[in-house]
Amino acid sequence: MSLINKPAPKFVAPAVINGEEIVEDFSLEQFIGKNEVVFFFYPKDFTFVCPTEILAFQEKLAEFEKRGVKVVGCSTDTEETHLAWLSTPKANGGIEGVTYPLVADVAKTIAQNFDVLGGEYVYDEETNQVKFEGAPIALRGTFLIDKNGVIRHMVVNDFPLGRNIDDALRMVDALQYVEKHGEVCPANWEEGKEAMKPTKDGVADYLSKN
């Protein structure tokens, strides 16, 4: 299911903010009309690939903030587990020093609504029971949500495949460039490179120069 050009699914859930405070009613709605949001899912706290991604987002946080973009993470762990991990030094496998919000999707409904849950509930007719097939945790989904609350970019990786944070930043630059200039961004576009006018003449002019 593609969520591109659709409103981001709404939710209200617990989260840890500023690396130390639990709030019970966190929502992305607070950013509508003010900020773009990079909302990303990761599988589990206290694992291996996940902290590399979370810390990499933190390392680039100033670049996102410079562009007016909020970064928010989410997994199916509890808010208490998030807080414990945030309080654990990096040398001990923790993510101490991360300041952007981490949402607790314990009910797994946020991951399901964003279509990144690693499995699904099915009904077993033989046992008359509901069981879960797959992994009841989130895949590595990344969503770029514009100021109107609409998803403009998404990419979902399988569990062992870590994402590229620089490319998430590149997509922010592309979205903001398109909205500011009304042009379109070709393959491998980066900030400072030439874009294309969305007309036949504009495309031809770009191709002739490149």
Summarize the structure in short.
With 210 residues, the protein is α+β, with helices and mostly antiparallel strands. The chain has two domains: 13-163, 3-Layer(aba) Sandwich (Glutaredoxin), CATH 3.40.30; 164-210, no CATH class. It is built from six helices and nine strands, in the order βββααβαβαββββαα.
What is the strand and helix layout of this fold?
Blueprint: E1 13-17, E2 21-26, E3 36-41, H1 49-59, H2 61-66, E4 69-75, H3 79-86, E5 102-104, H4 109-113, E6 117-124, E7 129-138, E8 140-145, E9 151-157, H5 165-181, H6 200-209
Parallel strand pairs: 3-4, 4-5
Antiparallel strand pairs: 1-2, 1-5, 3-8, 6-7, 8-9
Order of helices and strands: EEEHHEHEHEEEEHH
Q: What is the overall shape?
A: globular
Total domains = 2
Q: Supply the CATH architecture of the largest domain.
A: 3-Layer(aba) Sandwich
- What's the CATH superfamily of the largest domain, by name? Glutaredoxin
Mean pLDDT: 94
What structural class do you assign from the helix and strand content?
Answer: alpha+beta
Radius of gyration, Cα only, in angstroms? 19 Å
Q: Major sheet: size, sense and barrel closure?
A: 7 strands, mixed
Query: Regarding CATH, which class of the largest domain?
Result: Alpha Beta
